[in-house]
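B., you asked whether I could sanity-check this one before it goes into the benchmark set. Here's the sequence:
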Amino acid sequence: MALPSLGQRIAVARDMAFGFAYPHLLAAWREAGAEILPFSPLADEAPDRSADAVYLPGGYPELQAGRLAANRRFLDGLRTAAGQGRTVSGECGGYMVLAPGLTDAEGNRHAMAELLPVETSFAERRLHLGYRHAVLAAAMPLGAVGTVWRGHEFHYASILSEGPGEALFEAWDAEGAPLGPMGRRAGSVFGSFFHLIDRA
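And here's what the prediction gave me:
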């Protein structure tokens, strides 16, 4: 089963920093009747104010971290959406941008949206690669508590800290080995490095 629609009007980040929005995902949302409202964080565009959900997909925000950190309309737009209780979801690169800060490969830390308690770094690169299955830790737009998702993880970021906060998933690798809690959630905001493919 496809990812349930996050809302009726979904603002989706689409540019060179957020290029990994999978076509099947957006197609499923459209088929469910949702309207997709693209916006460019690199152009300092805020999510559409009429959107009831915001989706930050994967990509390469670490290569544009300085520029993103300077884009106040974009970051303030995320904070406004979260403050109004609208759903804000970040996947992989999007998850990193929902953090207080992101450290680039040169070791420079750039302030981000500060909506989820995670700090990541590319100065200490480590490959995280493989298929995963993950169980939702609480009821939310992704499903009821206990909903099982299949997907994958592919990134080089090191997690410097991930907490305090409530975990989004409990995760296992393709061989069934436990990976522990994955991602974070706070109010209507949630994210992780897990790329969701479908429900098990």
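One thing to flag: The chain has four helices and 14 strands. Otherwise nothing jumped out at me.
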